[in-house]
Every structure is written in structure tokens, then in C-alpha cells.
Amino acid sequence: RAQGPVFRRFGIPASRQGVFLMKAAIKSFSRKSPAIDKLAVEVRELLGLAPSAKTDAPKQTEQTAVFEKLVSRMRAAGACVSPKLARGSVPPLGVLGVVASAPIDAGEELCRVPVGLCLTAENVQEA
């Protein structure tokens, strides 16, 4: 909703694809000028996009530590999480999420979570 006026102004579709297009454009422009890079940080925040690793390295490190702690706790509770999975992003979009940090073989199990660790409407109400 908040992004709609910006998207209409620049003729970008008001959809997930539009967010990706806007992010790619911002990254492209910000590489060419420090002033644009500063504005790009503000635009990323306004659009709710992931921060640039270049401008927010300490925050990225903290978030990676949180991800690693989550994985550690999941494993301690019986989950299987492949060491080939990491928190990160992949160019050109750079959207943060879980990515492969090493080649994956066909059929290789990357993550298995016991049903007791899954969030459901029922177990949330019980908590």
C-alpha cells in the first residue's frame, strides 16, 4: 500500500515483481554515486527492503548470529539443518533469506523439522 504511489510515479507494477525491479534499480544507481547511495539507504528503509551489506555490515553480522543461534537451537531440539544452508542473499536482487552456501546434490535433505517444532494455529493457542 505505502509503495503504491512510488510505483505509479515510475510506472512500476505494484507487486512483488515491482519491489524487485525497484530494488535492482536502486542498487544499480547507488553504486555510481555516494550521494545516491545515501538516498538509496533511506529508500530501502521506506520500501521495507533488506539493507545493503555495504552500508549495514554490523547489523548484518548481528542478524547472521541470530540465524546461527536459531539453527543451533533447532538442531538441539531434533531438527536436521544442513551445514550447506546459510543466511544470505543472491545477486542480482539481493533479497535476504536462506541460501545454499555449497553445491547441493539431487535429493539431498537440507532441512527436516519435527512436527513439534512447527508453528500451527493449535500449538500457538496452547502456548
Describe the structure.
This protein is mainly α and 127 residues long. The protein is built from 5 helices and 4 strands; from the N terminus they run ααααββββα. A two-stranded antiparallel sheet has the order 1-4. A two-stranded antiparallel ribbon has the order 2-3. Helix 2 packs antiparallel against helix 3. The mean pLDDT is 79.
Keywords:
single chain; 127 residues; mainly alpha; 2 domains; two-stranded antiparallel sheet; 5 helices; extended
Task: Note the topology.
Blueprint: H1 4-10, H2 16-30, H3 34-47, H4 57-76, E1 80-81, E2 85-88, E3 97-100, E4 111-112, H5 121-126
Antiparallel strand pairs: 1-4, 2-3
Going by helix content, strand content and strand pairing, the class is mainly alpha
Please, how many domains?
A: 2
Q: Note the main sheet.
A: 2 strands, antiparallel
Q: Tell me, briefly, the overall form.
A: extended
The total count of helices amounts to 5
Count of extended strands: 4
Secondary-structure element pattern, one letter each: HHHHEEEEH
